[in-house]
Amino acid sequence: MSFVITQAPDHSIRYESYEIPEPQSDEVLVKFLAAPVNPLDLLVIKGAYPVRPKFNHSGNAILGYEGIGEVIKCGTDVTRFQPGDLVIPSAFGVGTWRSYAALNTSLLLKVDRPNDLVFAALLRMAIAPAYFLVEEIRTLKPGECIIQNAGTSTVAQYVTQFAASRGVSVISVIRDRSPDETQLIKTELFNAGAEKVLTESELASQALDLRKTKKIVLALDSVYGASGSTLLSALSDGGTFVHMGFLGGSGARLELGPQDLFGRRLTLRGFRGSDHMAARSPEEQANLLNHWVALFNQHTLRLPVLGLSLVELSEGQTNETTALGAVARAQGGSIGQRKQILLLK
């Protein structure tokens, strides 16, 4: 049975079955293989993200903004793709939380095959943003340091990997939790390349000392509010503060004084990874994506050591409870909650 996860006009999340579509002459039939439940997807569900789903099923919006699929069949006019090609969406809103989709070729980018398909499912919203944050916000030099909150997120873990290739150290900040769990996570992130791992409360007491002893030139804030304000206080004079998310809630406030802008000469920037990707031609995008796949296949890049929970959904079976449960867990946002990855078998 083919399935699709949608959002109805009453905002409820639904699991629906449908017939496998036939591609039009300029379309390809894609079977989705893996799709994550990202924080951006949760913003879409809340109606808080400007790019809305492009497709509907029975009047309900088809969810899922990232994933990896395989071309099964090509329309008569299609020349850029062939059956067996792996593809990812070239734009947000394509609707990846479904078994099959007939899609115009302009909505897809072909990618090389990684050793693990889960890596390809993370390309646009985890690996790409991490790369752009390290490579394109400011010129980072060996010996400098990045500080980031949401340290267990997939983006943060890839920031650590990309920063290491430039000789840049990373301080990752995680939410407070039980002592045993804190130590476990600190060990995992340290072994994955972070120079230092601090809890939010530890950073609050150490921020000024860090500013004196480390050259922290880039602060990456995915949380906002008090957490972001503490990152700001740890940033070295002349550093760059990047706001990239509202995991702590969009109603929170960032504490910023005149001394931060004028006395410390800090730069504040907003960040959307999609803008950096859109600045490239489709060919340049494909080359960059395939470069990351090659690094993964060479074991230079790795899957995150924390933060992934694989949820298997089998074709021909009713997966409603499993699929909707994965979305609900992501919405719950509990401490230690791993990123849900829908695997379509």
Can you offer a commentary on this structure?
Its EC number is 1.3.1.104. Residues 8-344 form the Enoyl reductase (ER) domain. The protein has helices spanning 39-46, 117-121, 123-136, 154-164, 179-191, 200-213, 225-234, 258-263, 273-278, 282-297, 320-332, and strands at residues 2-7, 13-18, 27-36, 56-57, 60-62, 68-74, 86-89, 100-104, 108-111, 145-148, 169-174, 196-199, 216-221, 240-243, 267-270, 308-313, 339-344. 34% of the residues lie in helices and 25% in strands. The protein has eleven helices and 17 strands. It is globular and about 65 Å long. Helix 5 (179-191) links the parallel strand 11 (169-174) and strand 12 (196-199). Strands 3, 6, 7, 8, 9, 16 and 17 form a seven-stranded mixed beta sheet that branches. Strands 12-11-10-13-14-15 form a six-stranded parallel beta sheet, sandwiched between helices. A four-stranded antiparallel beta sheet has the order 2-1-5-4, covered by helices on one side. The model has no long low-confidence stretch (mean pLDDT 94). It has 345 residues and is α/β, with parallel strands linked by helices.
